[in-house]
Amino acid sequence: MKSIQLNISGMKCGGCVQTVEKILNNSEGTKNVSVNLLTESAYFDIHNSQLNIDEILENLSNNGFPSKIYSNDFSEKINKAALYKKQKWISKWKKLNFAFILLFFSVLGHLAEGGFINSPLLGNIFFHASLATMALLLPGRQIVIKGFKSFLQNRPDMDTLVALGVTSAYSTSVLSLIFPESGFPCFFNEPVMLLGFILLGRFLEDRAKYQTNSSIGELLELQPETTYIYLNENEVKEIRVSKLTPGDEIRVLAGDRIPADCIVSKGNSLVDVSHITGESKPIEANEGDNLLNGSLNLNSSLRLRVEKVGSDTSLAKLVNLIESIQSQKPPIQRLADEIAGKFTYFVLSISIISFFFWWKIAIRLWPDFLSNHNNGLSIHTNHSLHSSLGSTADNPLNLAIQLSIAVLVIACPCALGLATPTVITVASGKAAKKGILFKGGDKIEIASKIDTIIFDKTGTLTKGAPYIKGYEGSHDNKFLLQISASLESESRHPIAFALIEESKKQNLNLFPIKNIKTESGRGISGELETISGEVKVGNLKWLENNDIKISQGLKNLIQSDDMKKYTIIGVSLSKNLLGCILLGDSLRDDAQVSIEKLRDNNYEIYIFSGDRKETVIDLAQKVKCKQDRIEWGLLPEDKLKNIECLKKNNHKVAMVGDGINDAPALAASNLGIAVGSGTQIAKANADLVLMGDKLSGLYYSLEIAKKAIKKIKQNLFWAFGYNVLAIPLAAGILYPKFGILLSPSIAALLMAISSITVVLNALSLD
Ligand code: ADP
Ligand code: MG
Q1: What is the DSSP string of 403-459?
Q2: Longest pairwise C-alpha distance within the chain
Q3: How far is the CA of 439 from the centre of ligand 1 (A)?
Q4: Is the CB of 456 under 6 A from ligand 1?
Q5: Of all protein residues, whose CA lies closest to atom 14 belonging to ligand 1?
Q6: 456, 585, 662, 693: which one is catalytic?
Q7: What digits encode the pLDDT tens for the residues 568-585?
Q8: What CA–CA distance (Å, rounded) separates 47 from 2?
Q9: Does residue 189 line the site of ligand 1, with CB under 6 A?
Q10: Is 589 a catalytic residue?
Q11: pTM of the full predicted structure?
C-alpha cells in the first residue's frame, strides 16, 4: 500500500486538526488518516485508485488549510530548515514578549484597582481602554481575523472562541465607556489577559514544534551544499550538490561530508559514519566500498562514484522516516482533538441557550430575579475596570446579552489544546536525551500498557559480538574457517561477522561463492566456485534435518558442562560434516541489572532464542529467568507464533530484539523494541529504539510512558475541570438562588490557573 504525506499550513488547534482529518477521511480513497498539529503534516494510506489528490488539496485550501504534497526535494528541505532556524524563532519570541507585556499590565491594573498600587495612570480607565485596543490590533489581530473567517466558513475552532470572547468583551466595554447609561459593565482588562494567556500557550506549542523539527534539522546539516566534480582525470570543478547525477565522479576532501550515496573508486580513508549508523568507531573505506550520504571523510581525499542522489539517499530516507514517525499521534490525543473540535459548538449553544433563557424564560420562573443582589464572586461598581457581566443589568434582555457574552469570554479551551502535546513533547524529549527513541506519540501510549517483555538472546541479551572459542571434530581448522567465512560474507548475522573478522586476522583468502541462500534462524547454504558440492553453515539441528550425520560422540561432547555456554555451528560439504566452530558471546554488562529491575516491578520476563537448549538455559540462569519462561531452538516464525499466543491470553507484549532476523516478531508484538544503532531506526520494524546498545533504558522508557499517560489524563481533567466549573457559573446557574455571577477576571484567573497547571504538570515529568 502506498502512503502520502502532506504539509499543511493554517492549523492552530485541536479543532483544526479535527477538520483536516474529517476532510481527508471523507475524500475518496483515503485510509488510516493521521494529522499532526506539531509537525503541520498529514499522513494517509491510499486505499484505492479513485483517489484524486488535486481535489483533496483544493478542498483543504478552500477550508483555510493551504497544503502541498510533502516535498521529497532534499535541497528545499534543507533551505526550509535553515529558514526555520533564523526567522521563526525570532517571531516566536515576539509572541512571548507580547504575552508578558500584556499580562504584566493587566496584573498592574488589577493591583492598582485593588488599591495595592497608587498610580493614577494605572487606575485610569482610558489607559486600560487603549491597552486593550492595542492588544486587539497588534498581537490579537491575526487570531481574531482567522477566528471569524473560520466561523463564517462554518467550522469554528479555537481561534473562533478566542475571537468571540475577546471582541465581545472589548465591545461591551467600549459601549459601557461611551454610554454609561446602557448598564453594561466595563472590563478592558479581560481581553488583554485572555490574549496574554493565549499567546503564552501558543509560544509553548511553537517551542514544541521547534524542538521536533530541530532533530531533523540536525540530520539535514549533514548534507553539504557543494562538492567537486571531476571534469577529466585530474581537473575538478566545484558544483552544487543538487546538480549531481548518478554516475558522476567526485572528489571529497578530508574533513568534508559525503554529498550522496557513493562507491569509492580510488583512494582509502577513515570515515566517520556515526550520525548515520550510530557506529561510533570510524570505518576504513577502501576501493569498492559503499559510503552513505552524510558520513564524514576523516583523513585523506577520496575519489567517489555517485550512486544515489537527493531523495534516494539513505540520509533523505532517514529524514523522511523521522518525519512520518512524528505524524503518528496517540489515540488519547485524537480524543482530545475531537472534543476540542466539538467544544466550540457546545459553547456556542450554551451561549445561545442562556441568552433565550434569561431573556424569555427566567422572568416566568422567578418574577423578581433581577432584584437579586450580586454578592459573591465579583466586585461590582459600574465603572470600575471590571465587574461581572450581568451584575448591573436592569432588564432581562440586558442580562441575557451580558450572560451570553460571559459564556463566550470564559470558555477558551487553551488548557485543552495544551494538555496532550506538552506531555508528549516533554516525555519524548526526556527519553531522547537518554538515547530512547519512541517512534511516535501513539507508541508512548502503547508502552504504558506493557506487562510482558520478551527478550531475544543473541545480540540482545548478549553483546552480539561473538568470538571464536575453538573448533571441534575437524582436521583442518583453517580450511573450516575459510570455507564458512566465505559463505558468511553474504550474511548480516553477528556470527557471520565473527567468522569474517577471524579470517581477516589470520589473513585467509575467501573463496568466490555462488547460489547463496540464507535461512533465517538456521544458517546459510551455498556453493564455492572452486570446490564442487553444497556447503552449509548453521546450527546442528538444522544440519541434521538436512541428512547430515552428526556423531554421537560429538553430541555428547557439546552437551557437557564445559561446552554449554557456547553457541555451536556446524560446517558441512556435500552432506559430510567438516567440523564445528564454537562461539562465545558475553552477556551485556547491564543485562542482569536491567532484567532484575523489570522483574521487581512486576513485568513478566521471557527469553525466546533460536540457539540450542544448553546455551539458552545457561544464559537464563545468569539472568535468573525461570525455566518455564524460556524457549530455545525457535525459528523466527516460531517466535512470532508464541507472541501471538501470549497476546491472545491478554498479555500486552513488548519484544526486544536486535532487529536483524527478529523483524517479524518485532512487528507482531504490541511494542517492538530494537536495541542498536542509527540505521536500524530505519530498518527495524521497531516502535521503540534503544540507541547506544544499552538495555538499561528499557525500564526507564516503559516507566516514563506510564507516567506520561498518567499526566495526560490529569491534564485533561484539569482542562475540563475548568470549563465544567466556569461555563455554568458564567451562564448564571447560581444567579437566581444566590445572586452569584462569574466575574470575567475570576474566569480569566481560573483559566490561567488551569493552563499553567497543565504546563507545569507536563514539565514536572521525570
Ligand atoms: P537468537 O534467537 O538467539 O538471536 P538466531 O535466531 O539469530 O538466534 O539464530 C539461531 C541459531 O541459528 C544460531 O544460534 C545459529 O546456530 C544459527 N544461525 C543463524 N544464522 C546463522 C548464520 N548466518 N550462520 C551460522 N549460523 C546461523
Ligand atoms: Mg537474534
Answers
A1: HHHHHHHH---HHHHHHHHHHHHHHHHHHHHTTEEESSHHHHHHHTT--EEEEEIII
A2: 112
A3: 28
A4: yes
A5: 611
A6: 456
A7: 999 999 999 999 999 998
A8: 8
A9: no
A10: no
A11: 0.67
